[in-house]
């Protein structure tokens, strides 16, 4: 039988071989995170993400989700595809579409899940059958509190996980297991008095240190929210059509972030340089073709057009912008027509 400490060492070594930058292990006690979750839900800050309340405490009690779970193996994989300077340049160019950098490459869900499955199979080969289940943002899992407890970083004031030597540009994944492995020591919080992320948020979605109101967050509005984007928030969205990276761009700890080595996280289909007018011209067939294998596809063509219409309304007026909007003014979907109409008033 392999001693537990040696098994952990082998698991971590294999994790690095599979392309993870860090592997940590924690227990399942999330009592403090659960109290924050319930308070957040009670205030309605989840917006239209009804599933957050529907899952209840199953999210904060791993053994309720997967009976027999006593440990969680948490992993980190860096995804930063380009320099901060390049991102800032894109964000400050209003006619250009800005897509959150995690979504420029292939869908991380499938990639991380395959790697985690291979890690689980490695453990299986080492010790024989054991109980486990792999997760990558695919079930009611409190991945950031688990990663924090596993020593992968601390949850910053913007509610993202920060590692002192890697910043916050990374994905997380988990293996729930019934193996009573030795656990890692959490890191301490090093945000100090810094409030850069709070001050830079375009919509003031970080309502207090460590508190995010999803209903104001551009990532929520452009990805999770299926309905009308509140009119007062639209001018604040700028050219951000899928997600928002502002709070990460200004975080001092991200000066230590390294560019991703994973080829699948590099930009595809020219999405890192595309113009709003170009992307607004995609019909549904083109959208589905160009977003195949991408996390972007999940919002669908209608929300894609809604988001870009808002961004075009925030862009400098030009014949090209107006023509693009007019071409969608009679769109069969009311959601698109409403946002196009708002944008036309802004540019016309």
From TrEMBL:
* Segments forming domain 4Fe-4S ferredoxin-type: 179-211
Which residues are involved in binding [4Fe-4S] cluster 1?
191, 194, 197, 251
Sites binding cob(II)alamin sit at 59, 137, 161, 172, 219, 244-245
Query: Quaternary structure?
Result: Monomer.
Q: Gene of origin?
A: queG
Keywords linked to the UniProt accession: 4Fe-4S, Cobalamin, Cobalt, Cytoplasm, Iron, Iron-sulfur, Metal-binding, Oxidoreductase, Queuosine biosynthesis, tRNA processing
Family note? Belongs to the QueG family.
| Name used for this protein in its record | Epoxyqueuosine reductase
**InterPro entries hit by this protein:** 4Fe4S_Fe-S-bd (IPR017896), 4Fe4S_Fe_S_CS (IPR017900), QueG (IPR004453), QueG_DUF1730 (IPR013542)
Pathway involvement of the protein, from the record: tRNA modification; tRNA-queuosine biosynthesis
